[in-house]
Amino acid sequence: MNSIFLALEYLRSQLTQALPATPGLRHFDVTFPLNDAFDPLAWLGAQQCYPQFYWQQRNGDEELAALGAVTQFSSLSLASQFLREQNAANDTRICGLNAFNPELGSLFLPRLLWRRSAGNASLRLQLWSDDSLQNDARTALDFLQKLHAARPIRPLSVQIECETHHPQKQEWLALIRKATETIARGEFEKVVLARATDLQFKQRVNPVALMAASRALNLNCYHFCMVFDASNAFLGSTPERLWRRRGKLLRTEALAGTVASHADDIQARRLGEWLLNDDKNQRENMLVVEDICQRLQHFTRTLDVLPAQVVRLRKVQHLRRCIWTELKQASDEQCLHILQPTAAVAGLPRQPARAFIENVEPFNREWYAGSTGYLSPEQSEFCVALRSARVQDESLRLYAGAGIVSGSDPEQEWQEIENKAAGLRSLLLRD
């Protein structure tokens, strides 16, 4: 008998306890042995209740699988307010997405939260009611009765019917020229322009299967998958942390500057050395560092900027500088609005760059270049929602962006977004 079955049986038994017919927040935990081949992503994919949320930290140390919503929030501010008003336990986690516009979000307090941290795992059942915990316990019991056993994730198998870029290449090249002309006039120093690629398939795209395929190949990345309902999902594998907070200790980073990667280690190392010494990419990265430090300076203690390093991924390599500090006040709302969108996904200065993006990009970014992760009173962590895709039945929209600064070459920037989009595209299309 597998461990998820035993854990759920234990939680069902807890719901038979006498609970008060009063408002409140209550949870039940059961430890989860890691000695069987349980895959939380496969377990989520077997369910027919929503929302579903999967998140894995890029070093693999932490993994979350959340199923069903006790309550939902349309912004991180509302989620934070809920935790404060309910005087929630320090480890009460709310999961989900923040849109590119940080005022908007899709976050939820999970009915069930499976969590692995290093070698320990647990399954939590969450109850909450603004009138009667007793009533919510009955709702939770009904929810548990509808769960299915985990089953293996079937390999992704789709056939493409058509592929369309927004903008197409010639329009993209014209946009880059327009951006560099605007930079030359001094209206902003940098802008990040993105492309959406719509793929239409003959079969429905299974977001969990795509997430599993990406997780297996796109190493050194955060992996995230938010399944809103049976038809809609948003997922990706991103190398970039927006922030990690432990109490008041904060870690963030500037990930900007890109070159192609290579399967051959020697070739990849040569490309990485070029990236470390390239003036355009170093300038692009330092613009992001300076912007983050400037935004944080009034809300933090001393800021430590670590030396530049090359992050090697499957299709691309990036420059990264980590920034460590201590917050004067532990506030996830503050972190979100200070840091998102960073100069790495919008530009610098932020407002004129965002205005330019809104005027020229032929699509709505929605969740792309927003952030995804979790918050709790004791800690939080969000990654930047890059190398991502929106799934809707038989269609899929891929996103990729490039930072434009003085001296950017339009053809090279097109090749950069091709390389970035290839992280997910190559899993769907066999050229």
From TrEMBL:
Pfam families: Chorismate_bind. GO terms for biological process: menaquinone biosynthetic process. GO terms for molecular function: isochorismate synthase activity; magnesium ion binding. It catalyses: chorismate = isochorismate. The keyword Metal-binding applies. The active site is at K190 (proton acceptor), E240 (proton donor). It is an enzyme of class 5 (isomerase). Keywords: Isomerase, Magnesium, Menaquinone biosynthesis, Metal-binding. The keyword Cytoplasm does not apply. Belongs to the isochorismate synthase family. Catalyzes the conversion of chorismate to isochorismate. This is Isochorismate synthase MenF. It comes from Enterobacter cloacae.
